[in-house]
Amino acid sequence: MLNRIFKRSFDIIFSLFIIIFIISWLSPILALLIKLGSKGPVFFVQYRTGINDTHFKCYKFRSMRVNTDADNKQATRDDHRITRTGAFLRKTSLDELPQFFNVLMGNMSIVGPRPHMINHTLEYSRLTEKFKARHSLKPGITGWAQISGLRGEINNTEAMLKRVDADIWYLKNWSFLLDVKIILLTFWITLRGDKNAF
After folding, report:
1. Strand-pair category, 43-49 with 55-61
2. Residue 143 domain-assigned?
3. How many domains does the chain have?
4. Do 60 and 95 touch, CB atoms closer than 8 A?
């Protein structure tokens, strides 16, 4: 319980810092670019699987043209649905910024397993019983799997199992210093460029 309180306190302080000092001035600029790039809303809202298999509205800046496959089909390399502005947002992970509001609301944490679309949760849960273990803690904006090169499209069972194993490793080895390490490495990988960010 003490660890949960400590982690939640850090989430609130960190997300407030990002919202006040970065999102507050960057959002209007990104919103304008998104609207100029294609028709549709600025934000993309999708139900994702959260802690204890609950569902929550996950917020992102819209990076794709409005399409009917958004809730079923994962983004792929050279995906024709991704707009020019969206490609930049995804490459730099700026499309994830609204999720700091999810953190503030308590749906997500800064660090944790990435939340999947609901239909993917059902699909992956049928492939391995271990998949449910990752839902015993809040999903995160970034995580151990992401900094370990396991970000991006899951196109086979082996890739999914590697991500699950990384998430379970994080669950078993959590510490505040590990969270700090993951956050710092996330910033470094974003600045350096991640080949799996698309």
Report:
1. antiparallel
2. yes
3. 1
4. yes
- Any domain includes 44: yes
**Global pTM?**
0.94
Q: Is the pLDDT of residue 196 over 80?
A: no
Scan for tokens 């590990």, then name that residue. 178
Sign, CA dihedral 115-116-121-123, equals negative
Give yes or no for residue 110 having a pLDDT over 80: yes
pLDDT digits (tens, 9 = 90+) for 121-148: 888 888 888 888 889 999 999 999 999 9
Distance CA 136, CA 97 (A): 24
Structural domain range at position 64: 2-192
pLDDT at 197 over 90: no
The HSE-up count of residue 60 (CA atoms within 13 Å, CB side) is: 20
- The residue type at 14: F
Asked whether residue 47 is domain-assigned, the answer is yes
Alpha carbon distance 74, 155 (integer Å): 9
